[in-house]
Amino acid sequence: MSGPSPQGPNWSQKSEDEEDPLDQMILRTGCATFHYAVQECMAEHQDWRKCQQQVQAFKDCMKEHQKQRMEELQKRQMLAQAKS
Questions:
Q1: Tens-level pLDDT at each residue, the chain (84 residues)
Q2: What is the DSSP-derived secondary structure letter of residue 8?
Q3: CA angle (67 as vertex; 58, 41 as ends), nearest 5
């Protein structure tokens, strides 16, 4: 029998136009190229130990993004405090 299951909708099925929330988040960081490199390496080697260079590059990019984000949040807090 095809169609939706009686338990409810199948949330794992997505339309082709629908973006994965994780992919959207990574795109906003500017680290998507590094993320895709990790995915490609994993698909090729099926062993994360062989992808350490790609994993480290992605980790470094995300760390830098988080640092910049924290600095921006701190600036906003300082501006908000100065106005009050």
A1: 444 444 544 445 555 557 799 999 999 999 999 999 999 999 999 999 999 999 999 999 999 999 999 999 999 999 999 887
A2: B
A3: 5
Q: Classify the C-alpha dihedral 58-60-64-66 as positive or negative.
A: positive
Closest Cα partner for 68 from 35, 21, 29, 26? 29
- The answer to whether the Cα torsion of 60, 36, 68, 70 is positive or negative is negative
CA dihedral sign, ordered 44, 48, 52, 56: positive
The two three-digit tokens of residue 16, written as one number = 């082709």
Global confidence as pTM: 0.70
Which is nearest to 65 in space by CA: 26, 37, 35? Answer: 26
